[in-house]
Specification:
It is built from 21 helices and 16 strands. The protein is an alpha/beta fold. Bound molecules: adenosine-5'-triphosphate and magnesium ion. The site of magnesium ion has 3 residues, from helix 9.
């Protein structure tokens, strides 16, 4: 071997190799690293590391007293253990060089097994625990779509993950707010902490405060012996995801605000406040600012939540994502349904792009799933879609066969409407009734009368 010729080959064999200069700009990155973190090497060189790879903490080493340190990165369910060192010539610091010691969970598992005896028992975690933690429900890879709007959302997710700020995710139903919340948690330094979810719209009125804040022993009749932790306490060290924050009961809003501001909570019946370290991610499918204008949501709480807003665009604003979303779903369903669909006819995309998708990706997924039932060959075609999207004209000939044509059409329209809304909400009857502005029992009656089954 010839060192002068082969040194680049040597560099290529170091995992995750990156170098930044004193200003924090990326001056070198090997191909292995670019591939691992999924960035384009050519266009990344010379740019601030913060932009190229937002989770990076390399810059800290520049200003640190220590010359060398180590860190973990958690990304998309993968973990890397990295080591970096100040690059010095004499006493002058030129930048920082970073490389990975481990890039996969399996390597980490082996490492832990081998060295667990020297790891402090208090910080020791079994490889199994690590594995399950790294695979929490969703990660960024589950967020399908490469439209400019969706890419912007993904960038925001990456950026939000590097901060500790409260995130407010606003988007219509079915736009992926839950995936986003999970992704932020998984990509953040809290990924080893818990991800706790609470839905502000589904709180039992009498228990709502204790759900959030917990209670002490004997706080009220029916209370569990020894008291109970609330969601804030359960999320300590991790993330609390408050879904449907727009429906937060008015009496709880000031208490939530206090928890966010003071970083402490009071259990019901408790004497002392309990300090909490929790990152809040809130989501809503209502326009929260309008709820504030209507006087239904406190302005101060809104501003406290709106620190890092992420607006998820509805599907109709990014119809170019439809083919990718359909194809992903088809591939997933091939496995479940034992089918082998490898093509989707262009007509399908044309038609789907014309629809306005009130239920967004959830509705699209349901529609694809429904269509997949009718395919035999390898191509998904428009007729498989049951004409659900088409507002086809009434078949006048067919009407002749009915005694009460108007009633028949009325029932048909009602059936279609209820079916579509149920579909939009993935079969959720509470949401469907709310959407149709009818009480839930009436929805049940109608479904029974019209023969609608889930
Ligand atoms: N961009 C996306 N890529 C892939 N799947 C998606 C995407 N957006 C949504 N989904 C899927 O659609 C369904 C609904 O997503 P999710 O539960 O995150 O919606 P949401 O915004 O929280 O809706 P809601 O306001 O009704 O709770 C899920 O099955 C999710 O996997
Ligand atoms: Mg949701």
């Amino acid at each position: 071997m010839d060192i002068s010729k082969d040194y680049e080959l040597f560099l290529e064999h170091i995992l995750g190799l990156m170098v930044i200069d004193r200003e924090g700009n990326l001056v070198y990155m090997n191909d292995q690293c670019a591939e691992y973190i999924e960035v384009d090497r050519g266009s990344s060189l010379g740019r601030p590391i913060r932009e190229v790879f937002p989770p990076s903490t390399m810059e800290r080493t520049l200003t640190s007293d220590e010359d060398t340190d180590s860190d973990f990165y958690f990304r998309d369910g993968r973990v890397s253990f990295t080591r970096r060192t100040k690059l010095k010539r004499g006493n002058e610091v030129l930048g920082v060089i970073e490389y990975d010691l481990l890039q996969e969970i399996d390597a980490l598992q082996q490492f832990i097994e081998k060295y667990s005896h020297i790891l402090n028992a208090g910080t020791k975690r079994t490889a199994e625990q690590l594995k399950s933690l790294c695979k929490t429900n969703y990660s960024l890879a589950d967020l399908v779509g490469s439209s400019a709007a969706m890419n912007e959302v993904k960038q925001q997710v990456l950026r939000a993950a590097t901060t500790n700020s409260t995130v407010l995710i606003e988007g219509e139903t079915g736009t992926g707010k839950e995936i986003i919340a999970h992704s932020i948690h998984n990509l953040s330094r809290r990924t080893f902490g818990s991800f706790i979810k609470i839905n502000a719209a589904a709180l039992p009125e009498s228990l709502s405060e204790s759900e959030f804040f917990g209670y002490e022993h004997g706080a009220f009749t029916g209370a569990v012996k020894g008291g109970k932790k609330g969601k804030f306490e359960l999320a300590h060290g991790g993330t609390l995801f408050i879904d449907e924050i727009g429906s937060m009961p008015a009496h709880l809003q000031p208490k939530i605000l206090r928890a966010l501001q003071e970083k402490e909570i009071d259990r019901i019946g408790g004497a002392d406040s309990i300090p909490i370290d929790v990152r809040i991610i809130a989501a809503t499918n209502q326009h929260l600012q309008s709820r504030v204008s209507e006087g239904k949501f406190r302005a101060d709480l809104f501003h406290r939540l709106n620190v890092f807003p992420i607006r998820v665009p509805p599907l109709r604003e990014r119809a170019e994502d439809i083919p990718e979303l359909v194809m992903e779903k088809v591939i997933e369903l091939n496995i479940d349904f034992g089918k082998n669909v490898i093509r989707v006819d262009d007509k399908v995309y044309q038609k789907l792009k014309q629809y306005d998708w009130p239920g967004n990706v959830r509705e699209l997924h349901n529609m694809v799933e429904n269509a997949m039932n009718y395919v035999d060959g390898d191509t998904l075609e428009w007729p498989h879609f049951n004409l659900r999207v088409d507002n086809s004209r009434i078949d006048l000939d067919r009407l002749k066969g009915y005694d009460k044509p108007i009633e028949h059409i009325r029932n048909e329209a009602e059936r279609k409407l209820i079916n579509d809304i149920l579909m939009m909400y993935g079969g959720n009857k509470t949401k469907t009734a709310a959407y149709l502005r009818i009480p839930r029992p009436l929805l049940y009656q109608k479904m029974k009368r019209l023969g609608i089954e889930l």
